[in-house]
Fold this sequence. Notes:
Blueprint (H helix, E strand, L loop, with lengths): L7 H37 L12 E3 L2 E3 L43 H7 L8 E3 L5 E3 L5 E2 L18 E4 L7 H5 L4 E9 L5 E8 L7 H11 L1 E3 L1 E3 L2 E3 L1 E9 L4
Amino acid sequence: VDAGSYGAFELKLAYQRNLTVGLILAVLTHLAILGGAALIGGYEGTAVGPVPPRPETSSGGVVFRPLPPPPPIIAEPTSRRISPGDIRGMIPDPVPDELATETVVFNPIREAAEIGGSYGPASSYDGSGNTSARAGGIVDTAEYLPSRTEFVYTDELPVPVKIVKPTYPEMARLTSREATVLVSALIDSRGTVREVVITRSSGSNVGFDDAARAAAYATRYKPAIQNGRPVAVWVTYPVRFRLHN
């Protein structure tokens, strides 16, 4: 404010008075806060540390006792002396050899391998469809025929030993028709085709499917081998009908 203008002197007096009042109020406020904090601290006590346990008190017939300390997390091991009577039943009593009975333990894997089971290649295929084991001359003629969608693990796949080519249908030859038929055949443990399914047809009615099915039934195989023994499996193969061949 310009000191030469009207009212400057009064403004200076008001400014100094307001500054003095503000400082006094600030000092009084701080003193009040510090005094209140001192009063509260003196009321609650300034001791720092664990609170001592309360003594037993009674109120209305109920006795209040301080809680005991919690037990340790890991209990200390306790030793116990074993008397001879405790181990009497643990040690077998000796008996003469002629009175002792032998405990027989069966090993199913070894037993199955000895008789030509599915656990070991102890059997041999003689070409007649029977599995003759090397031990005891036991013959296993049981055969399992899987479904067409069932997977059968084999060490050796079937090998055709007598291939029969399908006869070209006469109607297809006269009409110059060609096609491809997808055939699935079930080959048993003797190499004989037990069942034939046309997985994918030629789509025509000139006789391609019937010719492929008849040729599949007439074909003979060396059977598939699983763990040294013949097993029945399904095979799938295409049959192509071409006029130039």
